[in-house]
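Q: LysR family transcriptional regulator, please. Structure only.
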Amino acid sequence: MDFKQLRYFLSVVEEGAISSAAKRIPIAQPALTRQLKLLEETVGATLLLRSRQGIRLTAAGEAFHIEASRLLREFEQAKENARRIAAGQLGQLRLGVTVMHLWVPQVVQLLNTFREQYPDVTLKVMSLLSAPQIDALRRQQLDAGLLFFPPPDDADLCSHELYRDRLVLVASAGSRLASTPPQRLADLNGEDFIWFERSASPAYHDKLIHAFQRRGFTPHVVQEGTDNATMLCLVAAGMGCTILPEMTMSGAPAGVVCHYLEDLDLPLPLKLVWRRDASLPAVHRLIDVATRILATNSGGMAPWAGHTGQPASSSTTPSDS
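A: Structure for LysR family transcriptional regulator:
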């Protein structure tokens, strides 16, 4: 039995006569009769009773007609789903994003545009720091990730820059650093500093430490936070200052201010990262959307545009660009 025989059977039932069905299909009537006989032999039961008035279903034929109709509908749906998945229009896309990136306008624009263009692809957004994202990509537990500084020597990963952020000094609004902002990194020597464990994001951690060292700054770490959100809360509590991407200020708690430092010039390219051997078409559709957005925005998604030296509650409204 094959799907062709099922379609022949359903056509005969709908037409009520083999001759009419043969013309509709079209197929020679003897050939259609032969296919129906083969179908009945495969099923092991008589499905049709033939007479001069046409055909009618047996009891077995009635039951078989119901199941055959359902089976063909499911088969057609399966084919359609397969085609749409192959085109990146259906399925699930597992995307890693750090917590603080979820409300960055450029990331929101990417996710919303993808959702609008591919509404039947489920975006499973997983909140992970950069290092866990890289590990999950390598283990094929993520399809793509949004992160800073993917490993430059990993031939198995590809990346596409979305936008460039910059680093800012973040301090409590009631602190001396807020009222008398320092100008350079070296001015922070001796200040209580909030930092994060290297294991959370080794590449990001090392680049920042090297940048600090080149500018004569050695952090006096008094407290460690597990992520940017925690570090912001520790700053708001008056436990020290820190250095964070400017975009994190869009989600900063009240009582926190940020300032630019003259020599804090390490660029932070936020990148969309995926496996080179990614076979999921939806990944490539996400890349296409990111590429089109970049082109529309004249070569790049502009960094978050906020003001400095003011409380976060009044200075961290993201731009609409």
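A: Brief note, in case it's useful. The domain at 3-86 is CATH 1.10.10.10 (Arc Repressor Mutant, subunit A).
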